[in-house]
Design a protein that fits this description.
The complex is a heterodimer of chains A (about 120) and B (about 110). Chain A is mostly beta strands and about 120 residues long. Helix content of chain A is about 0%, strand content about 55%. Chain B has about 110 residues and is mainly beta. Chain B contains no helices and nine strands. Chain B has a five-stranded mixed sheet with strand order 1-9-8-3-4, with no helix packed on it. In chain B, strand 3 and strand 4 form a beta hairpin. The chains are: A mainly beta (about 120), B mainly beta (about 110).
Chain lengths: ~120, ~110
């Protein structure tokens, strides 16, 4: 158990819909990352938040957005869903307060499997 | 981030050592080598990392060549539960607060009974 939780575990929805994925980082971790894993693209970095602020963006579509709340949990919002958005979405956390910043391994949650029909 | 090259797949007998190679010939001086693994559809799991010295922890050993252009992850006594995709990732030593991981295709290690 990495200490990172994600809900829901599975999500089935239709094209055009909007969903929200939730992530609770390990206690004390300031940074949250979102990754998408699809069969054809592999594991891809989407976006990172650090202590409530966006820090880095990867291959995230404009239809997707995220935020990190004051309690450090994060949500990934996916809208106007398409069939190709079906994937596993992972959240990871790192950078605990007081931790040496050059040794930031990431701890991954179990993922949310999104199926768009 | 430097590019890495790994074999697509490898087999290993249960109880034997599994040696997973990784080439990172364009690695720069401020980049670490990280290893993660992903057991079928689970979240990736950190294994080990190193800069230039060999490293060992309870999971594995990491051997980095002197020129740092390649490394080998060693699982000393592979078990069936070690069957997974293993990712070798090179990442800057100090990326500020940005530590995104760039995953390649990794190596599928299959441990056989």
């Amino acid at each position: 158990d990495s200490g990172v939780t994600q809900t829901p575990k599975h999500l089935i929805t239709a094209t055009g819909q909007r969903v929200t994925l939730r992530c609770s980082p390990r206690s004390g971790d300031l940074s949250v990352y979102w990754y998408q894993q699809s069969l054809d693209q592999g594991l891809q970095f989407l976006i990172q938040y650090y202590n409530g602020e966006e820090r880095a963006k990867g291959n995230i579509l404009e239809r997707f957005s995220a935020q990190q709340f004051p309690d450090l949990h994060s949500e990934l919002n996916l809208s106007s869903l398409e069939l190709g958005d079906s994937a596993l979405y992972f959240c990871a956390s790192s950078v605990s307060q007081g931790q040496r910043r050059t040794y930031n391994e990431q701890f991954f949650g179990p993922g949310t499997r999104l199926t768009v029909l | 981030d430097a590019k890495t090259t790994q074999p697509t797949s490898m087999d290993c007998a249960e109880g034997r050592a599994a040696n997973l190679p990784c080439n990172h010939s364009t690695i720069s001086g401020n980049e670490y080598v990280y290893w993660y693994r992903q057991i079928h559809s689970q979240g990736p799991q950190y294994i080990i990392h190193g800069l230039k010295n060999n490293e060992t922890n309870e999971m594995a050993s990491l051997i980095i060549t002197e020129d740092r252009k390649s490394s080998t992850l060693i699982l000393p006594h592979a078990t069936l539960r070690d069957t997974a995709v293993y990712y070798c990732i090179v990442r800057p030593r100090d990326g500020g607060s940005n530590y995104k991981l760039t995953f390649g295709k990794g190596t599928l290690l299959t441990v056989n009974p």
